[in-house]
Amino acid sequence: MRNDLLPLMNVGRNNDYLEVASRIRGRTRELAAVEDRTGEIIAKVRRDGDAALRELTLALDHAEIGQSISVGDDEIESAVERVDRDLLEALRFSLNRVRKTQGQLLRRLSYSYVSDGFVVRTVARGLPSIGCYIPGGRAAYASTVLMTAGVAKMAGVRRVVVCTPPDRDGTVNGAILAAARMCGVDEIYRVGGAQSIAALAYGTESIRRVAKIVGPGGLYASVAKRLVSRDVPIDFFAGPTEIVVVGDGTTDARLAAWDLVGQAEHGQDSLCGLITWDAGLARKVRAQIASIAAGVERGEFVRGALARGFAVVCRDREAAAEIVNALAPEHVELMMEDPKEFSARVENAGLVLSGKYAPCAASDYCIGTDHVIPTEGYAVVRSSLSVLDFVKLNWVVSGTKGGLRAILPPLRRLAEAEGLPNHYRSVEARFKR
């Protein structure tokens, strides 16, 4: 039987790794095709406000939200009561883990040091407001509330807003509401897609604009974030999801296949692939994929994504590393002998998962790393979401007379060289009558 899942690509010695990466990216790149439509949605929300949100939610999400775009306290409390207690405990566990990890970083942001007569201090202050996009539709991502709003509140953001697509009956998923309450979210709105990004960026009658927008999403929401970024800061392009498994002859093909299937269930626009220098592993993983995907849950999404995926057989480890760095994928799993050595070669990846006991799905929920990670190659210049996205650093400097006197000579040279003599004289005046 023909196997169309994880199409095989043999990369010979003369193949350029940048060309290979471009071919792989070209299989999933649909950004240009949706930019015009996304721009129309944004313009409509800017023009018509709440009326546009209701109209677009009915047309795109097939949900009637009526006059109540915001989710009230009574609805939140009722939803929390219905959520399974074990799920609530799992959400608390995940929130505590990610806050523990991010707290390590937050504590390192505020410091002071003495430098030759001056004291330099940094103070990390939370941003005034954050809008968190929480995907919905095919699946409800309560964990994303923890990874965005939960970190924002820990960082000291005063106003945290959540937008998420409603179900067909106009309600919001109970687990999402429970997670929002757990994180201390201030406002929740039953609207998603590009229209919610526009509302967060420009405001409507019901939704006040925010200072920054974060969170993953499907193609339309991600493109909308990029389009509004000229007017309001965003985190980065985050979605659809991506995973690259790198393996060798020691890799367990069954585990590699399952990890690819696990991410593929996000949707047919997911980027899933194997990179190896062992042709035998590629054959084994493709066979395992075909077997698992034949009867797996959410099979339509899994098979759709894997049919657009790839299995690249390289000439050696060096070429494999080059292709990984050229792709700059969201997740890279190193399932091989000596993953530590290979990880040193990986410069461009949102999250590097080293060894078979650090699987991607575990990082999505419970390890403590944030699962909002750059996609579409943005890992070349960006790391995953962190407290750094929710704070600004204020620098505070105090000095002594002796310290200031000591820097007069170089200050004078620099000021005069740049044609700004009064810069120097304003400092010199402190030592003259």
Walk me through this protein's architecture.
The chain has 433 residues and is α/β, with parallel strands linked by helices. It has three domains: 8-29 and 239-371, Rossmann fold; 49-237, 3-Layer(aba) Sandwich (Rossmann fold), CATH 3.40.50.1980; 401-431, no CATH class. The chain has 18 helices and 13 strands. The chain has helices at 17-28, 31-48, 50-61, 73-82, 85-109, 142-154, 174-183, 193-202, 219-228, 253-264, 279-295, 299-307, 317-327, 339-343, 360-365, 401-406, 408-417, 421-428, and strands at 8-10, 112-115, 118-126, 129-133, 159-163, 187-189, 213-214, 242-247, 271-276, 310-313, 331-335, 351-354, 391-399. The strands form three sheets. Strands 1-10-9-8-11-12 form a six-stranded parallel β-sheet, with helices on both faces. Strands 6-5-4-7 form a four-stranded parallel β-sheet, with helices on both faces. Strands 2-3-13 form a three-stranded antiparallel β-sheet. Helix 2 packs across helix 9 (219-228), helix 11 (279-295) runs antiparallel to helix 12 (299-307) and helix 17 (408-417) runs antiparallel to helix 18 (421-428). The longest helix has 25 residues, at 85-109. The model has no long low-confidence stretch (mean pLDDT 94).
SSE diagram, text form:
Blueprint: E1 8-10, H1 17-28, H2 31-48, H3 50-61, H4 73-82, H5 85-109, E2 112-115, E3 118-126, E4 129-133, H6 142-154, E5 159-163, H7 174-183, E6 187-189, H8 193-202, E7 213-214, H9 219-228, E8 242-247, H10 253-264, E9 271-276, H11 279-295, H12 299-307, E10 310-313, H13 317-327, E11 331-335, H14 339-343, E12 351-354, H15 360-365, E13 391-399, H16 401-406, H17 408-417, H18 421-428
Parallel strand pairs: 1-10, 4-5, 4-7, 5-6, 8-9, 8-11, 9-10, 11-12
Antiparallel strand pairs: 2-3, 3-13
Helix pairs in contact: 1-13, 2-3, 2-8, 2-9, 3-8, 4-7, 5-6, 5-7, 6-7, 8-9, 10-11, 10-12, 11-12, 17-18
